[in-house]
What does this fold into?
Amino acid sequence: MSRALSGEALHGAFREEVRRFLREEYPQDILEKARAGAVLSREDQIRSQQALQSRGWLAATWPAEYGGPGWDPVQRYVFEDELDRAGVPTLQPMALIYVGPVIYTFGTEEQKRRWLPDILSSKAMWAQGYSEPESGSDLASLGLRAERDGDHYILNGTKIWTSYAQWADWIFCLARTSREERKQAGISFICAEMSSPGITVHPIVSIDGFHHLNRVEFENVRVPVDQRIGEEGKGWHYATFLLQNERLSYAHVSRRKAELDHLRKLAATLPSDFGGVMADDPDFIRRHAESEIAVGLLEKMVLNALIAADQTTPAQVSVLKIQATEIQQKITELAIDLAGRAGAVWADRARDGWREAMPLVPAFAAPAMGSYMFGRAVTIYGGATEIQKNLVWRMIGR
It folds into this structure.
């Protein structure tokens, strides 16, 4: 009992330390932009990450030997919980959550020395080259070719839906180095500098009005062989490892709680079509309560996955990803219903003064529409819900 109490006190002190840092040391202008629904720039993102790294807190999931804080699962949860509570913008995951752990787990010592420090300092931003125009959910059918030419690979092909490639200094790609009977075989995990001749980035402006997606073309791009991580032809294994980490990162439980709390407060100020305010509307009460229950269950799932990380199965991770993304969509739908007709208003939130340009529209409406539009994709990227359900079924049926 005393041991449990001392652990609780320790994590309580850590929580207060994180809160004090976010109040006193983290850039408040970035918090204000994020809370207002404005679009952050690359420079904003770098400053946010560097502020966290000033305490050695940026790579929360990394072991201490590679520059992470070496936290226990509860400390990690407390830290991420406080970031979400404060409204800290989501960290760019491509380097910190995706490729970083692949590098320190499977990379050579030279690769670790070359790439990990620049990730931690935010000197280098990364993009993920997975999906292709003809290979989305069926990623193993990818066609980006990497043909060996002495000490180099020659890359030809196209990647698509590449988040923040326009910001990236490096891209890690799944590329086909050989044709095998089993399509998951013959794929390698190759890293390329975005400044390499032959790489072209084509912007894709999504339905929410943001430019965060891109099409990336590779035309005779020469990449040194020593920029391949792990063994040739074993890229699918490293990709599976990466996707496990990716799918655990979607929950953002405290962010969902904060969104529901915000919606409850908004509902108390918005008129209902049936008289009174939306907070008293039976349909709103029911849907809000259902979402709160779902978020509570999601929190239990996340804690179990963190504490029993070594025993967590791919099926459990898939279930968590399904739950997290479907809950996120339901909350954005509830926000749009509160916005009513104002929810149809579109604003370019990358421009200064966008809020002042629509004085008759409730302040929450345009960000709510942006979140709703972006949220249509969350059940697709990182493994579509239908694919995740198939994975769960296969694993349970074994």
